[in-house]
Specification:
five-stranded antiparallel beta sheet; SH3 type barrels; mainly beta; 2 helices
Length: 69
């Protein structure tokens, strides 16, 4: 699964605060995720996080960032 820093993940199970949206701030063997409802940061092993992802929302780069010259 292709997860990148800055992606917003919708998880199957809700955080105790009620939020299901998490922002990815670090990738690797573990993901560092920040709850978009309460701001709590957690480190989750990659295999466990990937099993619980329902959807991935990715912000595309704007055309001004990709233009050269």
């Amino acid at each position: 699964m292709d997860i990148r820093v800055g992606d917003i993940l919708t998880m199957k199970k809700a955080h105790p605060c009620g939020g299901k949206l998490w922002k990815v701030t670090r990738t690797g063997a573990d993901f560092r995720l920040v709850c978009q409802t309460c701001g709590r940061e957690v480190m989750v092993p990659r295999f466990k996080a990937e099993k619980n992802i329902r959807a991935v929302a990715r912000q595309e780069k704007s055309s001004t960032e990709t233009s050269g010259s």
